[in-house]
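Hey, quick one: can you model this chain's 3D structure?
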Amino acid sequence: MQALRVAADAEPRDAGIKPADLFLDVEGPRLLFVDGVFEPAHSRPGPVKVARFAPETAHPLGGMAEGEGWVLSLDPQAAVTGIQIVHLGSGGESHVPARITLADDAVASVVETYAGSGWANRLTQIALGKGARLMRSVRLLQADGFVSLRDEAEIGEAASLVSIFLGAGGMGSRIDGALTLTGKGAFAEMGGALLTSGTQKQEAAVVVRHEAVEGTSRQLWRAVAANRSTVSLAARVEVARGAQQTDGEQSLRGLLLERAATVNLKPELEIFADDVKCAHGATVGELDQRALFYLQSRGIPAPRAKAMLTRAFVSDAMSRIGEEKVRDAFVADADKWLESAL
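Sure thing. Here's the predicted structure for all 342 residues.
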């Protein structure tokens, strides 16, 4: 991939970003990685451990993410919220693995932020025990370069994993997800909003596999493409034999701000059980001209009217973020992108 190679070969440069500005005003553990190296001076890890390890994965990019990474392991019924992991790049390439293991009924929330430049390659492996709950919110804010993310998760009985992504920087990106619901009544959601401009390209490809009865999954993605940029979204649900009473839903929607932009959507269902409720939808369109005319007739300038409608388009993708301060920060990131793109 040419964009990835260019990002990996980029010369180091000062991004002019203060690490403190990348952390949200949320109480909880904080870890800073600069060019893939843990920076203790701006960190307070708490229960999050920093260690060197090499995860086992068949994913080609994920397999490169070995070395110094971070590990969160919670005992039964333990709870840690507001964990922030910040990745700041100055050019070149960096690879960081992560492992999250929550025992039965444990609860955690994690916010990850990517800023700066270069190629940031990450692998996150997740294992959730019975009744465990994990909320992940990921902000892709790099000014340029490339971010490649690989998520692999096993979700146990009555456990819940919600992962929301926002791509609002100028970098290229690739988000890969492989979520497996292994326990009865498990829940998985993976989605978000990818916003592109110029000649930028962002893409996501997620596979959710149901292997147990009464599982529920949601894939809700929103794409906004301006200028000559491209967003590609692929969402797949696999229902194994015996995974009866599965409820799987996919919602992929794209918004073209110019005719030269491109949004590619590919929802897929593969079902081998006969008692399921699965649905998918995929639409690509432009801003409603009647709504724009209405707003402008009320004295709202055209750029502001476009921003209002576009924000409404992506808002449902971020509404699933459980913590208000985190959700507000994601909305502010999207608004900042809208101001520069419209």
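One thing worth noting: The helical segments are 2-8, 19-22, 289-297, 302-318, 324-341.
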